[in-house]
User: What shape does this take?
Amino acid sequence: MPNAETPAPTPGVGPLTGVRVVELAGIGPGPFAAMLLADLGADVVRVDRPGGPGLGIDPAHDVTHRNKRSVLVDLKAPDGPARVLDLAERADVLIEGYRPGVAERLGVGPGDCHARNPRLVYGRMTGWGQEGPLAQRAGHDIGYIALTGTLGMIGAPDAPPAVPANLLGDYAGGSLYLVVGVLAALHHARATGTGQVVDAAIVDGTAHLSAMIHGMLSAGAWQDRRGANLLDGGCPFYGTYETADGRYMAVGALEPRSYAEFTRLLGLPDQAPARDDPARWPELREAVAARFRSRTRDEWAAVFADSDACTAPVLSLREAPHHPHLAARSTFTDHDGITQPAPAPRFSATPTAVRTGPAQPGADAESVARDWGLPREPGPPPAPLPNPAVHHPQ
Assistant: This one.
């Protein structure tokens, strides 16, 4: 339950209804983690600072700020830290993404917050972690995943490693691990009355994602080079192929039954090279590639549409929401004219929804103060009475 005695502002949507979260504004994995908590029903208040930060896009289009509210606080102003601590006192969770030591210098570190609220879960999102030789260094997703070995796994063997946008590091290795940690710590806090610090480092989470691969490597079932393994594009029946119109099909026909259906629908002759002989994989790959080049992507998509061949068209971001399966499941949704992924996962008893569009910086100060029971800020001083002896131009 929330730490403050005041009730939740409105009936919520999602399993985290009633959980209060403070998000100290940042970019990348912190805001995405806070969006996920907000999507799940938490009352997330984003503490924006005047003038930024931002992605260089109109804040009205930054969907990572949906389902949140925003207040403006200048943490370098004399009253800035106290205003954040007032929020932290009433919150269940606080998320920050500063370099190690910055929150402490600003007066809103774990010690300051726990002095006001011992039950608080204090989530820290960084790339390198809170300690280690690189902890104070700048960085971005691509560098974090490079050091963990995961970037080097991705791409063709005769080309540079392929960059997976910032999905693998920032969001999979970062945001999702922060949310898992925060929810686990929240469970502990409710059971014991004691909060704690969650140190979510992108290098830790991304390395953790490769656990199965490390097991295969140890067992001799994975080669430590890209494009040479079952799941990294080295296998001719697990990869992508160009079609006649320059688009692509994705193939994942790993199981014998799926492979048999795949080759039948693709039209490979019975004497096609054996799938279980890696020495003949290059020959098989060329045979598969030649068949895919004979038709367009959409023609092949129609061929494989109602099969268990585990073969699908590679869609663009704008195409994906219109795929019949994703449309039927409402995997994407439109809110205020913005097409965006719907909240995930789904819950039978506490369904989620996109309740509000992106929070506008500082737009919710009044409602947050009311709903969270914050101390009233002193209003501006009254305007001085005009001096009748002074001429005031109209």
